[in-house]
Amino acid sequence: MTVSIQAGQFAQLPHGVKLHYASAGEKIKPLLLFLHGFPEFWFAWESQLKEFGQDYFAVAPDLRGFNLSDMPDDAASYKPRLIAQDIQSLITHLGYEQCILVAHDWGGAIAWNIAIAQPALLSKLIILNSPHPYLFAQALVHDQAQKEASEYMNWLRATGSEQALAKDDFALMEKLFVGMSDPHPAWFTAELRKQYHACWSKGLTGGVNYYRASPMHPATKENPGAEKLVLNPEDLRCKIPVRVIWGERDRALLPVLIDGLEKLIDDVHIERWTDASHWLVHEHPDRVNLTIRRFLAE
Length: 298
Prior knowledge:
Blueprint: E1 6-12, E2 18-24, E3 31-35, H1 46-52, E4 57-61, H2 80-93, E5 99-104, H3 105-117, E6 122-128, H4 133-142, H5 144-149, H6 151-157, H7 161-178, H8 190-200, H9 205-213, E7 242-247, E8 268-273, H10 280-283, H11 285-297
Parallel strand pairs: 3-4, 3-5, 5-6, 6-7, 7-8
Antiparallel strand pairs: 1-2, 2-4
């Protein structure tokens, strides 16, 4: 059965933020919510919306700061708790009390926040290459390889990074985007490039403000970053079922970030893909769909 995707839908949330979203399937079915990361937008989940719209109400929003959703200028508007509030309000706006959440990259960071602080909102969490906050904070302080892999975050935090990324028809943005996999990946087609350029031309400040608002970055002379955090792992325990798909060829988020994850989650299963990078959703869309479907059936 072919399911069509309906984009161009907007949710005006009670706290004043408007989110754009795309959906597939019928609202009477369980809500399956997909959260993208940087520098993406809802379209990253096109394959998943078509697949899971058959038996779920599959929804992929543009997160605050991206594409057609509201883009506040100030970095303080991108603190994780505020983005989590957006998602909580979106779930309510769609007419649901609970959902299954699938999330990647920054979407995953928000999803971890929700799963830990508001577990009643989620029946299950599926994470793709996005580290648990405790393990990420520890690695940014104690793991030299991860600190070096995350140095790009401090560059993105700097004033003017969005202008540099947009220069020469997004030349640097493209390099950053595909640079976490092969230099010329087959999945980055001319059509996909066109879609992403259209998204990026709407503004990049919101996307880089996620980095500016977060303490999760390597220390610099001016800012201690993750070193200033005092975290108790038990306060960050996740009590809902979590399934993780991790592309081990990720150059920004290293496999060390899932070592010890089972100590922080009551019910977790991890799949490590040695042939996938940070962009596993693009590299292996059918395999991602099959794995998600298997996780959903458990």
